[in-house]
Amino acid sequence: MGIQLVVSLLAASIMQRLAPHCSFARWLLCNGSLFRFKHPSEGELCALAGKQMPKQNRRDRRQNGENKPLTVPKDIDLQLEKAPVNVMDALVLRFFLEYQWLVDFAVYALGVFLFTEGYYSVIDASKEVNIGAIWCVLTVLFGLKALQTLMSHYFRSEEGGERSVCLAFGFLSLLVAMLVLVVREDYLEFGLESGFSNLFDNLETFAKQQGYADWSIPVTKLSVKLGLAAVCAYIGSLLAFPGLRLAQTHLDAVQMNSDRPLIQILLHLSFLSPVVVLVLWVKPIARDFLANAPMGKTSVTLVSSEAFDTVRLWIIVALCVLRLGLTRYHLQAYLNLAQKWVEQMRKEAGRIAAIDIQRKVTRVFCYLSVVTLQYLVPILLILFSTLALKVLGNYSWCFDNEETPGVTPALVLPTAAPVASGGLDEDEEGMEDMEEDIQATVAHLLEAFAALRSVLTPIFLRGLFAFLTWWVAACQVISSLFGIYFHQYLMQN
Q: pTM score > 0.70 for this model?
């Protein structure tokens, strides 16, 4: 690993030391661009209602046995006070620490990835393990873990409605995944069929090299695809509420920027970006159209097959950057739900308890970090799975790459020659034994990495991470479009 390991350990150390003092996640919420709404006090509500504030406060009324809450008319002219979100407000938010750790880890993982890309462009390090790819895969796993934490919170809810939504989207995702996995490669070009075949062949070869000549692969492609469909169902259930939340914040953000047409265009493009990701892997629409574009009776090759892979990577990265750049508009649209609810309340008749108004307004801000996670994690999943696809699939950022993925052969490692111990004292013999143990450990690690690389070849990893990237986008399309239908039609009716 060499210098890559040094940079990786340095990045981990810096992240641990600087997190309490310098955090990108904390700056994203607390840079002064987001405004929250403060809940009104009982005195303010009484003044707006034109009545005198009771002399006894709520605690005194409870002690005297008066449980009747303070109520005010719903049609009072209530205007919520704005305040910028600061660090002290954000630290008490639910799931804020999980949000801060994940976003900061993603930032440092991106830094390590950029370093490894520059390192590989300068030095031929094809035999080294790419540390940047490991950081990318870890970011994807930690993103799924964050969504799992949120979903477990929904499952512990007493109402049970959130649990039913997650289960429904999980079963729907299972059905869609099973349909997608039987589609031929002529239509969806993930490369899973060739990847699975290459994986099984390499496993049999590896087993024979280890002395298991009569051993055969006990699994079939069908069982592997069923397991992959189960994983897809799990991911679909995790992305149910992020998609529903994205639909709500998108509609509110478009309405909030009704006088800014350029921002509205960017918001619509950001919302439709997962659809673009889906189309990029539909072979008749994307690759075949660019490779054989019809021009009258002839066809013109606009982009070569190798260049199309590079263009696809750049398009996905650009769309992720666009969605990250519009984070503030979506979060502010969510925070405006407090004022939106107050405006809706003023149109109703009757009375409402003051404590209910305070809870409604406060609850919007309390879930800000949860909404931020639901918005950012799907973007991070697509972005870092694409970066892992580039590295592990042997793709290139340049347009002149014509390398085809092949099988990485297992490395034949030289064994260390035994060191003669004659004429050495006990201390020197102890040092020699320690050095031999270290060399043996390093040799075992290198052998393990070489065996892993000989089995998990770029052909298999291309198919796996291409399908993962496509599936995350598909789940977000399904859940967000359902959210648009729910908020536009079902909620209004």
A: yes
Summarised one tens digit per residue, pLDDT across range 64-98 is 545 567 788 888 888 888 889 988 888 888 899 99
Q: Give the Cβ contact number of residue 109 at 10 Å.
A: 25
- Interior angle at CA 388, CA 229 and CA 471, nearest 5: 30
Residue whose structure tokens are 């002395």: 211
In angstroms, the CA 373 to CA 99 distance is 6
Give the 3-state secondary structure of residue 320.
helix
Q: Which amino acid is at 64?
A: N
- Measured CA to CA, the distance from residue 65 to residue 52 in angstroms comes to 21
Euclidean distance between CA atoms 51 and 258, whole angstroms = 38
Measure CA of the first residue to CA of the last residue in the chain; give whole Å. Answer: 60
Contact status, residue 331 vs residue 369, Cβ threshold 8 Å:
no
Q: How many residues does this entry show for the chain? A: 493
Contact between 421 and 429 (Cβ < 8 Å): yes
Beta-bridge mates of residue 81: 38
d(CA 255, CA 278): 27
Dihedral sign, CA of 94, 372, 150, 255? positive
Domain ranges (residues) in the chain: 3-40+78-408+457-490
Distances from the Cα of 9 to the Cαs of 3, 6, 108, 136, 277, in angstroms? Answer: 10, 5, 11, 15, 34
Q: Which amino acid is at 30?
A: C
Asked if 365 contacts 80 with a C-beta cutoff of 8 angstroms, the reply is no
